Each structure stands twice: as structure tokens, then as C-alpha cells.
Task: structure prediction
Amino acid sequence: MHAKNTVRYFLLLVFVMLFFFFTNDFGLVGAQKTAIVTAIAIDKEEDGFSLAVQIANPSKEQGSGGGEKEGGGTQNGNSQYPCVEGKGKTVAQALDEAEKSTGWLIKLVFCKLIILGESFTEMDAFDALDYFLLDEYMNDDCLLAAVDGKAAELLKAKTQLGASSALAIEKVLSPTAKSAGVSLPCNLKDFAVGYFGASRSGVLPLLEQEENFFKAEKTALFKDGKRIGVLNAEETFALSVVKNPLRLASYTTQVDGVDCTLTVRKTNNKRKFSIKENTPVLEVELALYAGVKDNAKSRPIEDLKDLGNLPSGALAVASQSLASQIERLHQKCKTLGFDAFEAIGMLQKHENDYFEEFKETLPERLELDLSVRFEGLR
Result:
């Protein structure tokens, strides 16, 4: 009798599970009513904000024959993810307008990228970015980037790397790009920390498009939420090597008139701030461990055994060249009054007695005591 009851119990359980399986949509209807936002582009209008919202829409993929299933452009057999635009006096109103035009509920939980247009960066960026800080569904590790011109045009741009321009942009803002010194990615949390911190400054990668590819070798400088200057690719690398540990980075210099590219396997960077004779001084000590990656001129066979065999004088030339780049970066930031090396935070932490006296003029008064040395891998 007990065995029969057990069988009946399991049959009833199977029947109940089958009933729910065939009658429940398991949230699919709710998902179909939700717009999964992958990226947002923000531009400033005369009377408010203009937002372009990129939405992940797998149903727009192409069939095997390459024909388009639904409307929208195609690229490499895949249709581009759609971008919906909305305008409003606030960011929230602009998002509401975008939501009305689609009939979908816009959710930001999967948004990984916000692009700031040139017109937007002429104002205090946190007039709009504070909305995303307050949104409980927004990830604070969402990447931020700036662009010359309109952000919406970049987000709508076609790419050779898939159906989503946002995903292609995220690749050039990856941790790998940061560790190689190619770009200086920044997320919403870190940009907010800089903005609300003592220096009220921060940096964002400046996106550019060449043909159907993106790059972020330049860096936009922000103070009080406004863009005040731009670093070129060399200056971006110089700032990266001071602030971040690099790995598998490439550095090209000239040795005896011949271009030579070194591969930097790792770096050690030390920074120390102090006040000396009423002068703020930042001591920077950099050690880069490198081998030869390529040479523009052929080399003897005995020098090709391994990458540790560097051209004669290469380490000294590279050390001097990089030191000059960092010095030029420092002078440029002094002229702009920009705290590139986060010295104001170190002043507040280590020399707090001088904080009120130096905090406003520190970037212009800061002296750099720099030591750069390249060392062979062995």
C-alpha cells in the first residue's frame, strides 16, 4: 500500500509540473515587453537633452541567406541593433520619450556604455549623469567615453565587428587595452569619485571612428565636470605608465636613427608627494622591464636568439624618450590647471596641513621629480 501511494504521489507531481510547463510563459511575455539597453548616447540640445538608446534585439538577425528579417540596415549579414531617440528637459524625460516611441519598458540593468557628445561635455556632465548614479538598476561599472561631434552618430555607426556598435566600442575600452597603455577606460563610479573628490577632475577616453572600426587612443580631460583639454596618443601612454601597472605594452623609439619597438612585460611605478621649502613636489619613479619586439632594420643572426638581445643603447634611449614625454605631459597639464597625477588627493592625505593653502593652485605649482629607467628582461 505504501508503494502504491508513493507512485501516486510522483504521478501527481509530474502532472502538476506538466500543467505549469504548458500554461506558464515563464516571464517570456514580460521580456518581450522590455527593451534591453546596451548603450546610451547623450547630446545637449538648446532646451534639454537628446538621448540615443541602443537596444539589443536578437530578432533582427539575418537568416542564413543574408536577407533581412525586419527593418534596419545590414552589416556583414547581421542587422544593426536599433537605436531609439528621445528628447526632454531632463534625462528621465528623454528616456520616457524613447520608451513611448517603442512601447517597450526601458531597463538599464544591462547598460554597459554611456557616450558623451561634444556639446554635452561643454556643460557640467553631472547635470545629467547624476540620474544614472541614482538609478537603482544602473551598474556603477558602466563605461563612460567622450566623443568629438554628436554621440548619437557614433552609437548608430556601423562596425565590422558585429551588429552592435556598443559591443565593438567596449572592446577598445577593455582591461587589456588599459594594461597595454592604449587607452584609459573609466567607469561611472570612478568618474564620480573624481568629480566629487578634492580635485574635482577626471579623464575619459575620447572615441574616434576610422572606416568601420573604433579606437580610443586619445583622452579627454575634465575639470568640474567640463572638458578642458585633450591628450594625444603619446600623452595618453605617458599618463598610463605613471598611473597604472602596464603589461605587454608596446613602446616605439629611435635607436641610431632606426625605429625600434620594445615590448614592456611589466612595470613598477612609485609616486610620493611632499612639500619641500613650500613647494609641492611629486616624486615619480618608473621601472619598465622590456625586450625587443621589432626593429625597422635587419639585425645580425646572433641578435635574433631571443627578445632579450636589445640593440645597443636601446634602453637608455627609450628611458630618455619616455621621460621627455612625461615631462611634456606635465607641462601641458600645468598650463591647463589639470591634476593629471592625482596630486591633490595625495596632498589631502599626506600633507593635510597645507591642504587649504595649496588645493586651488596645486596643478600649476606642482614640480615633478622624475626617474625613468628601462631594464632588459634579464
About this structure: The two ends are 80 Å apart (CA to CA). The longest strand covers residues 258-276.
